[in-house]
Amino acid sequence: MESNSIIARMFKRQAADLLRNELAHMPAVALLGPRQVGKTTLALEVAQERPSLYLDLESERDRARLTEPELYLSQHQDKLVIFDEVHRTPALFPVLRGLIDQARRDGRRQGLYLLLGSASLDLLQQSGETLAGRIAYLELGPLNARETGEGTTDALWLRGGFPDSFTAPDDTRSLRWRQNFIRTYLERDIPQLGPRIAAETLRRFWTMLAHNQGGLLNVAQLARNLGVDTKTAHSYVDLLCDLLLVRRLQPWYANVGKRLVKSPKVYVRDSGLVHALLDIGSKEALLSHPVVGASWEGMVVESLLASPAPGVQGHFYRTSGGAEIDLLLSQPDGALWAVEIKRSLSPKVERGFHSACEDLQPQHKVVVYPGSEVYPMGHGIEAMPLNELCQRLSQS
After folding, report:
1. Rounded distance, CA 377 to CA 110, Å?
2. DSSP string covering 105-125
3. pLDDT (tens digit, 9 = 90+) per residue, 268-312?
4. Cα–Cα distance for residue pair 142/302, rounded to 1 Å
5. CB-based contact 71:101 (threshold 8 Å)
6. pTM
7. Where are the domains of the chain?
8. Which residues have CB under 8 Å from 266's CB, separation 6+?
9. CB distance 70 to 76 below 8 Å
10. Do 247 and 200 form a contact (C-beta atoms < 8 A)?
11. What CATH code would you report for 3-139?
């Protein structure tokens, strides 16, 4: 991996234009994503384009400025005010509602407040009713294949998409960064968010999910393995999903006269965290590990789900008879993209994919593989590299 060239590259985040667009139309925007994913960097980049004020609510000095929040913020109504880690001051939301309503009466209806949060549960629970109709939500995930560019797919797969991990000077430092990230989340960040869960218990649970990467979610089995009840195990899954660290990919429901699998598939959303949880530090170790195929699939799924325009929904499709599509993308106009994910340089389409396509009649059928060429595979199926499909989805 040519680390120097990657470190020098500035990443253009796909969410940047969406963020600018929402700020041009809504009084408040919440940008949600895990810690260290680049929310503050993106917010400050956008802030350079207009008068703005940045407040870090983990800073005692900045929190002190908000002792009388209405009085302080009323002095900065001509600026975009950015609140970082806004969940630390839940009493702020009713104040923002009043200020937004006053600004509307004064003719200022957009681009007033940008709220940054490290978990969806924070802002959705605290602001859902208070700022209803006044706020838009955007999600910023780790870097994806389209953002890192050509020739970086293997590095993205091994190291994951957290910028500091991806741009580390070598694989050893990258793994160490991710191990520290996991430890900080378990020992500091999660307790700050409210749940009182033993760090080692949650680490074991998170590691179990990594071992089961891309598998059907069986909470009862996870509960038995961890020695807790099913309700507790469900709460752990919910927590990691709310923290935007784990994804439940829901099954596609269709009236096809066949028995469909109804359990979601579960992924640790960043492949680099999968490898850190399983102590995989190099590409050689990864290629010989049983998780190799599922890890590749998870990385591809996350990059593809980050690429389409808003309104595209991702699912998987599986029947009890063996028909299966790894990722089914549903466009707002009803068009379907059926995506099969293969790690092989000479991918073969299995019978289950053909059978599933007969059931659903998707408009596009694609096999993603780690090669560099686009070529037809017959039956209307194309093989293509991940970056090429990300580009096509962004233009569809």
Report:
1. 49
2. HTT--SS-EEEEES-HHHHHH
3. 999 999 999 999 999 999 999 999 999 999 999 999 998 766 778
4. 9
5. no
6. 0.90
7. 3-139, 145-395
8. 209, 212, 213, 214, 215, 216, 217, 237, 246, 247, 248, 249
9. no
10. no
11. 3.40.50.300
